[in-house]
Amino acid sequence: MIFRLLILFLIFPGAASAGDFSVTLKAAEESALAVDGQYKSAKSYASAASAAAAAAGSLIYPRLSLEGTLRYNEVVPAIAMPAALGGGKPLGDNWNYSIGPTAAWTLFDGGALRYGRRGAGAVAAARSADEESARRQAILKARIAYFQLQLALERLWLTGESLQLSLSQLKDVALGAKAGSRSRLDKIRASQETLARKRDFLRARADLSATLRDFSFTTGVELPGAAGLPLDARMAGRDYGGAEPASMLVQAEPYEAILGRMLPAAVAHAENETPAVRALRQTAEAYAASAGAFKAERSPRLILGARSSVDYPNGPNLYSFVQNSASLGLSLPLFESGRSSEKEKEGSLNEAAALAKRDEAAAAAKRDFDKAADAYKALMAEQGINIEAVDDAAEAARLAYEAYKAGGGTWLDVESANLKALQAKTTAAATNTEILLKLALLDSLTGSVR
Asked: What is the number of other CB atoms lying within 10 angstroms of the CB of residue 255?
């Protein structure tokens, strides 16, 4: 089936010359990632959460700081002494200072700091998963826009080919009518068909213009100039019955090149966890860690401290001295109006809510994958029918015109056959695009294409 599909792709020739606007799918994806606000926001959030996780982990280890104080006392206490002993003696100085390094280490806190580190790590993992999900969505939107651009170009190309055929047949009928071998009615009908094709051609160019603007908006790829009435780059230099000159020649990658890149998604398996599902699971873990941290707050906290400082004054002796000290502090919450209990409950309930969302998101992702896989298989089977329909319609159009020229058919038969040939090719081109769209959706759910 893949071989037959490639044959169909070859029915529609790829771009043969460079246009004023030429873009590849890879370039469109890269540009979309550079401008997509959701992806850039998710990327910044992921970096911020990673920094927060590193900061939370540092609290577990000893902390060393330089501390200092400077204080002025207006009144200095003094001790009364007999005059024989020199009289009263001040117990210090108006100015007091202390400066030196201080170390502190939480020896035990019921695991509060470790729960905090675990929660921050889970949040960072969730934000990283959000970043990957946003990246895939940005790429998916870029691919959809690109495939729609391809389809608009293909429809314009096919409409142009149909218009050229109508112009050629109109010329033959007009010559026949002038020679008396064809009726004036046939000439009028041939002219009507040509006018219809010209109208279709103009609309196809307008549709391509609109698609180009949508593509530029989605991907951030700037258009080089006016996109009012563009043409496919393959159509450069061709005569389309006096059509308006091209405001821009547009070139995209041919279908067969894109198909080869996207096909791995057709055989990939559904992920156990899509990034969106993984983000919800990690969020639930963060809530669980938060609940554990608040529970640990009700435990005793033991902090070891050490300090070496230069102090002034040394009691009543007005000189500085080195003071080394160590401390061991213990604290135990006795009453807090149920704050930690309620916060623990909040964390547990948020965890349950996140897990429920995770399960729903996982089921939805599995459903979307199965639907896309089934649709892809159906489209591949449909394209086999389209291949035969294109061949039959082209042959029927050729035979109808040959029969008309031989006097064995009417112009209405020719017109009907031509229209069916155009419809068959357009349907096949649209199915090509649908196949690529399903492959792009499958890839967004598996991450198989890079």
From this structure: 24
pLDDT digits (tens, 9 = 90+) for 16-29: 334 589 999 999 99
Q: How many CB atoms lie within 10 A of CB 322?
A: 9
- DSSP assignment of 150-201, as one string? HHHHHHHHHHHHHHHHHHHHHHHHHHHHHHTSS-HHHHHHHHHHHHHHHHHH
Q: Is the peptide bond between 313 and the residue preceding it cis, with omega within 30 degrees of 0?
A: yes
> What's 244's DSSP letter?
P
Q: What is the 8-class DSSP label of residue 406?
A: T
What are the distances in angstroms from CA 187 to CA 179, 211, 266, 302, 402?
Answer: 12, 36, 50, 102, 17
Q: Is 375 exposed, middle or buried (0-12, 13-18, 19+ CB in 10 A)?
A: middle
d(CA 224, CA 211): 15
CA 44 from centroid of its chain's CA atoms: 14
Return d(Cα 104, Cα 304) in angstroms, integer.
Answer: 6
The answer for residues whose C-beta is within 8 angstroms of residue 390's C-beta and 6 or more apart is 8, 11, 421, 424, 425, 428
CB contact at 8 A, 21 and 247 = no
How buried is 22 (Cβ within 10 angstroms: 0-12 exposed, 13-18 middle, 19+ buried)? Answer: middle
CA distance 290 to 370: 36
Model-level pTM?
Answer: 0.84
Are 155 and 426 within 8 A, CB to CB? yes
More reliable by pLDDT, 180 or 219:
219
Residue 234 per-residue DSSP state? G
pLDDT tier for residue 120 given thresholds of 50, 70 and 90: very high
pLDDT in tens, 162-208: 999 999 998 988 988 888 878 889 889 989 999 999 999 999 999 99
Closest CA to 145 of 360, 450, 436, 447: 436
**Is residue 291 within 8 Å of residue 355, measured between CB atoms?**
no
CA angle 140, 144, 145 (to 5 degrees): 120
Structure tokens belonging to residue 188? 């009028």
Q: What domains are there in the chain, each with its CATH number?
A: 2-59+127-294+363-446 (1.20.1600.10)
Residues 252, 23 contacting (CB under 8 angstroms): yes
Instruction: Tell me how far apart the alpha carbons of residues 418 and 12 are, in angstroms, rounded to a whole number.
Output: 17
Residue 447: CB atoms within 10 A of its CB come to 16
Q: Provide the β-strand partners of residue 326.
A: 306
Query: Judging by DSSP bridges, how do beta strands 249-252 and 231-232 pair with one another?
Result: parallel
**Who contacts 188 (Cβ-Cβ below 8 Å, separation ≥6)?**
none
- pLDDT per position as a tens digit, 342-355: 989 999 999 999 99
Amino acid at 278: R
Residue 244 confidence class, pLDDT cut points 50, 70, 90:
confident
Residue with the two structure tokens 């198909």: 259
